[in-house]
Amino acid sequence: MPVCLAFDDGYLYPFMIFAYSARLNSKKELRFIILNCGDNLSQHTIDVINKITRELSIDVQYLHSDETFEREWHHVSSVAMQRLLFFDLLQEPFVYLDVDILLEPGWDGILALNEFSPGEIVKAASDDEVSCQNQILHNEHCKCSGIPINEAWETEHYFNSGVLVGNPDLWRMQGLNNRWRQVFFHEFDSLGLKVLDQDLLNYLLMSSASRLDISFNYLTGFQIECL
Fold this sequence. Notes:
Layout: E1 3-6, H1 12-24, E2 31-37, H2 43-55, E3 59-65, H3 83-89, E4 94-97, E5 101-102, E6 122-126, H4 129-145, E7 159-166, H5 168-173, H6 176-187, H7 196-205, E8 209-211, E9 218-219, E10 225-226
Parallel strand pairs: 1-2, 1-4, 2-3, 5-10, 6-8
Antiparallel strand pairs: 4-7, 6-7, 9-10
């Protein structure tokens, strides 16, 4: 499976560390698909990416899109929304990874998880305790404010979108390539959603998601995730 990445110029240095750790801790042939959405990646950044991946013997492909997401939410950039485009555009199962994670030995085991059970669209790890606690508090706020929430959003069900395996065929078959835009642009606030891409994916896929072992997305702190 390809490893899919979406980031902008500001994450070039984290990408360099990401790519090095990927190569250092895997002997497999690696293929990156990097989304260049609008003007997120300058030519300088692309040149650096190409040089690094060539030196590391990592195949790299670029996926282009003109889609725009004109909204920010707290610390989460709208760039995070771009991971949804992999579901829309790819014709094969994929692994999506945030570029600010450090890949440890054994990380490439996730590349073998390309079989899906009936109705399964995504595999992802349950979110870390801190984020889940914030989500629970957010849900309580929604209840007090009369804002509808997804009743399934509890600690053991809510998943983290930074590491996931996606089934784009079933995503499109179920019309989610259109549904997510309706939710994002017209229903996001009224549904009480909070974290751009992660809440949206949980809202859409709660009943279509299975859990990865937490070792595939182990949060060591607020700043660094280790896979």
